[in-house]
Design brief:
By secondary structure, the chain is of the alpha+beta class. 35% of the residues lie in helices and 20% in strands.
């Protein structure tokens, strides 16, 4: 049970009572049916890389883990689609079809470990989602086990279907509507030409200005990622790659893809705009090997930081791109006030910030300080016109902040949808929404709504 006591958010831990490891849809259905009959809550779990405590077994719930459901069920290259079991690892999908000139676009930085089922539940993003869209843009059909143990299908082989988009409702529902047991994904053709630029800047504000100029000029990079100096130094210390200038305040990685002529033009324009924003130098990488070298530091930044600090809390807020410089400066200020170092590595093109609060778990009271700083950073994002989550979901970690974005009536409406799938509230209870038990005052209005006759799941009003 120890291995299942947390997900990627190690700040909160609770061992489940039981873990079930099914291999087929029928076995998932049998386990869920058994839970339904006994009135026992259950929690779907993929690879456990989630960063919002979504797979955390807070209650005495049964964990149903999909890590033995790793089969490719069907490959239909002519129609550019693949059907996989939910435990298939994200990067395996591209690996399975790369030889035929295809790939699966959504690529979370955790792609060598996270599962497709987890990606669907979190509507995960990644480096290439700036141009190609997040998971919901790439899922065609879902086979589900509903919370009563029945099996159903949402969506179909075509991208657009008439009727209500229930497939869209399920994607991003964080395990609260049932368990995805087979997923049909869209495959894209590998672009004929790809180039990566690396630009270094003397300030985060200058790097933010480059992002603004590039997007403002109508260039749509496949990915545009930013790292600050603590990340650059950590990567340099760890890998000794010598790729990122050690003293730069920020580096920007820009990937451009498409037809060779289009890429050449975009590379020239983006380089010019980086220099205009104050870049010290702009390097170009065209071969696969040279591109991989430039990306390696970005993709391993969190691992590299782990050498300096054994624990981290990775926040996931969103701000409008134009607010990046001011919000980053404010995060720096908050980090100093709270006495906790914060490193920044994030999807700059989407305005999706990932401030990484670094700490040592053995320091007394550090958990509360880390959570408080995380909350203040999200408050900044909301005040800048952004959101409390870009791609990691709400889970158990951010449910008490839902009130900052949604009124009690909005949340009650979402709960109505949830109840339509899960009338008894057995699927991942207590996640996403504040409850009186978990968030006290912030759930008060929900209790009032129940008194007014709105039907809410039991945990939404249980003290
Ligand atoms: C180093 C690192 C980098 C990361 N980078 C990114 C990134 O760039 N972009 C990004 O979006 N995320 C990122 N993440 C977060 C995480 O990897 C994603 O949220 C991922 O989709 C979680 O997948 P998982 O299989 O680990 O899911 P889990 O952590 O096991 O579960 C996550 C949620 O999904 C639900 N769930 C799992 N499987 C199913 C299923 N079959 N049916 C229904 N519900 C299910 C669970 O109940 C839970 O609520 C990163 C994480 C780490 C540790």
């Amino acid at each position: 049970m120890l291995a299942y006591d947390c997900d990627g958010l190690t700040l909160h831990r609770h061992q489940p009572r039981l873990v079930v490891l099914p291999e087929t849809t029928e076995q998932v259905a049998a386990a869920v049916r058994c839970c339904a009959e006994q009135g026992v809550p259950f929690i779907a779990r993929g690879s456990g890389t989630g960063l919002s405590g979504g797979a955390l077994a807070e209650t005495d719930a049964v964990v149903i883990a999909t890590s033995r459901m790793r089969q490719v069920l069907q490959l239909d290259l002519e129609n550019q689609r693949i059907t996989v079991q939910p435990g298939v690892i994200n990067s395996w999908v591209t690996r399975a079809v790369a030889g035929d000139g295809f790939y699966y676009a959504p690529d979370p930085s955790s792609q060598v470990a996270c599962s497709i089922g987890g990606n669907v539940a979190e509507n995960s993003g990644g480096v290439h989602c700036l141009k190609y869209g997040v998971t919901s843009n790439h899922v065609l059909e879902l086979e589900l086990v509903l919370p009563d143990g029945s099996i159903t299908t949402l969506g179909g082989g075509l991208p657009e279907l008439p009727g209500l988009d229930l497939r869209g409702v399920f994607i991003g529902s964080e395990g609260t509507l049932g368990i995805a047991t087979a997923i049909t994904l869209r495959l894209l053709r590998t672009p004929p030409c790809v180039a990566v630029l690396l630009a270094d800047f003397a300030s985060m504000a200058a790097a933010g200005e480059a992002v603004r100029l590039i997007t403002g000029a109508g260039v749509l990079p496949a990915g545009m990622e930013m790292m600050d100096n603590p990340c650059i130094q950590a990567v340099d210390d760890y890998f000794g790659l010598d790729e990122y200038p050690r003293d730069a305040a920020a580096v920007l990685l820009i990937e451009l893809d498409g037809h060779p002529l289009e890429v050449k033009e975009a590379v020239e324009l983006a380089s010019r705009l980086c220099l205009q924003a104050g870049a010290g130098a702009v390097r170009e990488a065209w071969s696969e090997e040279a591109r991989a070298r430039l990306w390696k530091g970005r993709k391993s930044a969190i691992t590299a930081l782990g050498r300096q600090f054994p624990s981290y809390y990775l926040q996931d807020g969103v701000v409008p791109r134009t607010a990046l410089p001011t919000v980053l400066a404010a995060i720096d200020r908050l980090s100093a006030e709270h006495g906790l170092p914060v490193a920044n590595v994030f999807h700059a093109g989407d305005g999706n910030l990932h401030p990484l609060i670094l700490y040592r778990a053995d320091q007394p009271g550090v958990g509360e300080r880390v959570s408080a700083l995380g909350g203040e950073i999200l408050r900044l994002c909301i005040e800048a016109g952004g959101s409390i989550s870009g791609e990691h979901g709400v889970g158990s970690d951010k449910r008490c902040y839902m009130d900052w974005m949604f009124s009690a009536d909005d949340q009650a409406t979402m709960q109505l949808v949830r109840r339509a799938f899960d009338p008894d509230g057995l699927a991942n209870p207590g996640k996403i929404f504040p409850t009186p038990k978990t968030c006290g005052e912030s759930a008060r209005r929900l209790v009032e709504l129940q008194a007014e006759g709105v039907v809410l799941p039991p945990e939404a009003v249980a003290f």
